[in-house]
Amino acid sequence: MLCRLLPLVILALVTATAARAGEPERFVIDPVHTRVLFAIDHAGYSKALGTVSGSEGSLLFDSDDWSSARLEVNVPMERIDMGDSGWAAAIFAPRFLDVKRYPQARFVSTNITRKDANRGVACGDLTLHGVTRPFCMDLVLNKIARYPLPPFRRTAGFSAQAQLKRSDFGMTSWKSLVGDDVELRIEAELVRHDGATASQPSK
C-alpha cells in the first residue's frame, strides 16, 4: 500500500512546488465572502449606500508576477440591496439599471500592475447597463494562505476601490436627485480551483 501511495505523495509535492515557483494559480470567487459596496449622492443630503452579493468569476494570479494575472467577474445586479424595497425598485427600473434587460455587470481585466509589495491597479473593460468602457481599480492584496478551517483550501483576499460616472454608462435620469459619481469598494475572497470542490464557498 505504501509503495502505491508514495508516487501520489511525490506528485502532490511536485505540483505544490511548481505553483509556488511562479506558475499562475487559478482561483474562483467565494460569493459568501465577496461583496461590492457603492455610495452615491442623494440630493446633497447624504451618500446612499448599497451592496451587491453573489458575484462569480475567476482569477489567474501569480503573487510574484502580477502582470500575468487575469480577472473575470460577473456581478448580478438584481442582488443589489439598498436596505429598502422601494429604493431597490427605483434602482432596478429602466431609467437606471434596467436589470431586466441588463441583469449583470461584467469586468474583464486587460492589465494588472503591481505598485509595491501588496498594492496594484487592475484595469480592463467594465460592461454596465449594456455599455462597455475602460475601468480601473486600486487593489490591495490582503493575504494568500491556507484557510484555517476545513476544507483548508488556499484562499486569496483582496480589497479594491474605484469610481465611475453613471452617465458614462447611459444612466442620466434624475440628475437633480441622484449624483453622477459612484464610489465603489470591493472586498473579495477567492479559493484555489481544485476541480469540482472549487465552486463551494468556504465557511
Please explain how this structure is put together:
Helix content is 13%, strand content 49%. It is mainly β and 203 residues long. Strands 1-4-5-7-8-9-10-11 form an eight-stranded antiparallel barrel. The longest helix has 19 residues, at 2-20. The two termini are 34 Å apart.
The outline comes out as: globular
Mean pLDDT: 88
Number of helices: 2
Strand content: over 45%
**Multimerization status:** single chain
**Residue share in helices?**
10-25%
Q: What is the N-to-C succession of helices and strands?
A: HEEEEEEHEEEEE
What is the end-to-end distance? 34 Å
Protein structure class: mainly beta
* Count of individual beta strands: 11
Radius of gyration: 20 Å
Tell me about the largest β-sheet. Answer: 8 strands, antiparallel, barrel
Looking across the biggest beta sheet, what order are the strands in?
1-4-5-7-8-9-10-11
Low-confidence stretches: 1-19, 196-203
